[in-house]
Design goal:
This protein is α/β, with parallel strands linked by helices and 343 residues long. It contains ten helices and 17 strands. It is globular.
Length: 343
């Protein structure tokens, strides 16, 4: 059947396939086809892949590779039994590394789905169900382990590896495309500061592109994983991990006026840290400010808060207003890319 595929010359196919696999963008239910010197790799999200190939920034797929997204007839993977085949319906879940995450209110339904996932041909053996909302300053939640040994895993995303334990740290795979969008614009030699770094999903790809990075977080376990992930990805010499309140770190003269790039991914309360962001910002600093607001005015509150904190010391220019995803009915998760330039 015709499905979205990346068409790429056969000799460049493996490198392209690996990039797509690292981003979890290969449609595993279909076979990869080879015809007349071309490889057709079935994909799950044509929009995201097109952005990889045609985006404004650099892509992990080499710029001179003759690759594009096309519809092509590829065979089903006959030997693969999906959870939907077993259940008779398509379950909703997400993957973080080798852990499958459910969000089910009914324990019996959750266990039914978990058993179907394990009994399917997916290479997954651990299934957990959300047992609480995100809570506390460290933004962690409780989990019910339905099948498997626990909540620790290694998640792979756009060529980076992130060790983490869901019970100890916050991590969202849904932001992978957004993180990659930002990382594509990072240049070697930049000084980047992630004010709420977690296990390093922004810091590590920044460092892999040659930036000097600081990641700060209140969660001691997250900082331990950030250090491990820096080693795992071979960037430990370019990553400084700090376990502290970033408001305290911002008073340290070592980081005053330091950053060329700031990440403020703490929706709902990032505005409370804008004074610290201004203290950390260098002469010319790009701030990635994440917010959750009502769809009627998703960008206004954040922009007004940034201007209030930074002006008149800085000229404030909003370079990008981007809706990242829906968050709740009538609420959206947004990003403001804001340039701060000191007079």
């Amino acid at each position: 059947m015709d499905v979205p595929c990346v068409r790429v010359p056969r000799e460049e196919g493996e490198a392209t396939r690996q990039v797509l696999a690292d981003a979890d963008l290969i449609a595993e239910e279909f076979e990869i086809a080879v015809e007349e010197g071309w490889l057709y790799i079935p994909i799950t999200d044509a929009t995201t892949v097109s952005a990889l190939l045609d985006g404004d920034g650099e892509s992990d797929i080499e710029a001179d590779v003759d690759a594009d997204v096309v519809d092509h007839d590829v065979p089903d993977r006959d030997t693969q039994t999906s959870p939907a085949d077993i259940l008779g319906f398509e379950p909703s879940y997400e993957r973080i590394g080798e852990v499958v995450v459910l969000d089910e209110d009914d324990p019996e339904r959750a266990m039914e789905i978990a058993r179907a996932i394990v009994d399917s041909d997916l290479p997954l053996e651990t299934v957990v169900d959300k047992a609480s909302k995100i809570k506390g300053e460290t933004r962690i939640r409780d989990w019910n382990v339905l099948v498997g040994k626990g909540t620790e895993t290694v998640h792979r995303e756009y060529g980076c590896e992130f060790a983490l334990d869901l019970a100890d740290v916050y991590f969202s795979p849904r932001l992978a495309t957004e993180r990659h969008r930002v990382a594509e614009h990072v240049e070697a030699g930049e000084r980047a500061f992630d004010m709420f770094a977690g296990v390093g999903p922004f810091v590590i790809p920044f460092a892999k592109r040659g930036a000097e990075c600081v990641g700060c977080d209140l969660n001691e376990r997250a900082i331990e994983y950030l250090r491990e992930n820096a080693r795992r990805n071979g960037v430990e010499e370019r990553v400084t991990a700090i376990c502290d309140d970033v408001r305290q770190v911002a008073t340290d003269s070592a980081y005053e006026n330091w950053a060329d790039r700031l990440v403020m991914n703490l929706p709902h309360s990032a505005d409370e840290f804008l004074e610290s962001a201004v203290a950390l910002a260098g002469e010319d600093c790009l701030v990635h400010y994440y917010d959750i607001q009502h769809e009627d005015d998703p960008f206004g509150p954040g922009e007004r808060a940034i201007r209030e904190a930074a002006e008149p010391e800085y000229t404030v220019t909003v370079e990008t207003r981007r809706t990242v995803r829906s968050y709740a009915p009538h609420e959206v998760n947004v990003c403001l890319d804001v340039r701060l330039e000191r007079f």
